[in-house]
Every structure is written in structure tokens, then in C-alpha cells.
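Sequence only, no structure available. Ideas?
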Amino acid sequence: MFQALTRIGRRGALSGSAAVLAVVGLLWWLLPLGEESPSGRITFSTGTATGVYQMYGKLLQGAIAKDMPDLDVELQDSDGSQQNISRVATGEADFTIAAADAVETYILQNKPGASRLRGCSRLYDDYVHLVVPRSSPVQTVADLKGMKVAVGPSGSGVRLIANHVLEAAGLDPDRDVKPLDDGIATMPGLLEEHKIDAFFWSGGLPTNPVRKLSKADDIRLVPIGSDLVEKLHEQGGASRYYRSAVMPADAYPEAQRGSAVQTLAVTNFLITREDADADLTEALTRTVIASRDRIGAVVHAAQLVDLRTAIYTDPLPLHEGARRYYRSIKP
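Reply:
I predicted one. C-alpha cells follow.
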């Protein structure tokens, strides 16, 4: 080996070493930290059986098993963001995914453990879907007046968004529509069977139950225009986290027929509590970033996890372990 190094020459050796160091510099932050992997057991609250939260949680569980083989991750089904936040804040779960508007609502209502909540990473955006049969007369949110509308379970982020959107359109969510608390597992079937006139859903793109429905039945997505987003912002509070967005034409090709759909979006975060172990939180945050492409191959929304924006978890301060990770990868 030393003879070969001599033949290469000092300049070549230095050049080769620099190349190796450059590669290591690019890759080290994607690998698990330290010689000892975090161990023990954590609980991760996900979402409904067919929703993006649960699919993401299962794939992340697999990535954690690879990076931290001594850590046992228990997944819990949930109704969505609101229940997820409550579980973490009160100690029923250790980590979860939740939308920014639901986090802000929990904080503003000063619910138990709100001050203990911490952010680990900004993940991806949820897009609001308002789904109706193609033959429906509904062209705007206001047209839902008097109709049967599935708005999600009481503990879901969907319910929170649906109520805000209906109010922004001048409708009382309890009086002007007939709300059903069904979730994404049953919404498509109810629409197919004509038991509801429309349903709201908020999730990453594409959401499988909506995709399957669009292939099986003739549906369309009702636009939610920027004027409605302005009215949402006028509500203040959690509604400030909604922003105008465009659902790409290829999200649900059969339903959209080549046309993008104006809607609104809200950001999701990976969250935990202030007292979560810093080493564990650092390692988990590292795995979330490192597994983006692997998870994104299945959950397309996860492809949007971006190291450059992951640090922005407003309204939650960063957990110290997550902060440590982001500092470690700064150039």
C-alpha cells in the first residue's frame, strides 16, 4: 500500500485525500450519530388508517429501525392533528405529526401541556380538498349551504380547517351545513353511495383514498380561491397559517382533467415535548432528513422535506436536540 502511495506521488495523494474528505463531509450528517444508538421505547401518534400521517409514520418507523435498531417505536392510530398534539402535550405519546394551525389553536386555547410542545422539523404541506361528484352544482364553498358534508372527526385537523373555511365563506359549520364527522377512511364510500354531497380533506398529495375514488367515480375538486384565503387571514389566530396554493394537475388526473386547482395549504411539523431526550431527538431528526427520498418514493409529499426550511417550526420553538442537529450540519 505504501509503495503504491509513493508511485502516485504526494500531490496525487493529497488530491485523493481531499476528495475522500469531501465525500465524507457530504455524507456524515446523513448517518446515525455516535457509536451507541438510542435505545428504549417511544410512542409515535400518527393518524387515520388510510391517511398520509399513518403511512408516513409506518415508513419512518422502518427508517428508525434501520438507523436505531435498539429503539422500539410504537405507532398509535389517531383522528389527526388535534388529537396528536394533545397526546404529545400530555405525555400519552412522545412524537407526532401535526399541522401548524392545529398547533397554534392548542397554544391559543392554553390547553394542558401547551408550553411544553417543541418542534423537530418542518415536514411537508397539507392541501385542502373539497371533493364533490362531477355533476354537483357546487362551484364554491358557499354553495354547500344546506348540504350533507363530511368534515372529519372532532379531533382531526380536517375538522379544524373545514370549520374555518366554511366560516370564511359565510357559513355556520353547525347550522348552514349538515356536518358528518366521518374521516378519510369512510368519506369516499359515502360520496359514492350518495349519502353525502361533499367532503373536506386536508392531506399530502396525492392522498390514496381520494386517488382511488377519482379512478372509480366521476368526481371533481372545488377551487378555494385566494379571496377566501384573505378572509381566513382576517379571522386571525390559527388561520394565519393558511396560504394560497395550487394543486398540480397531475395530483388526481382523472378528477382534474389536466387543470390545476386553486386551494390552500398548511404546513406539517414533527413535534415532541421539551423533556424529550436531546440525544434521541437529535438522532430522530437526523433520520427524518436522511430518509426523505426513501419515504418520498412512497409518500410523495415527503419529497418536500427540505433541510433548508426544516428548521422553521413556528409557532413552536425548536427542541434542543433538533437544534443541535441543525447546528452540526451548518457549513
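The radius of gyration is 23 Å.
Hope that gets you unstuck.
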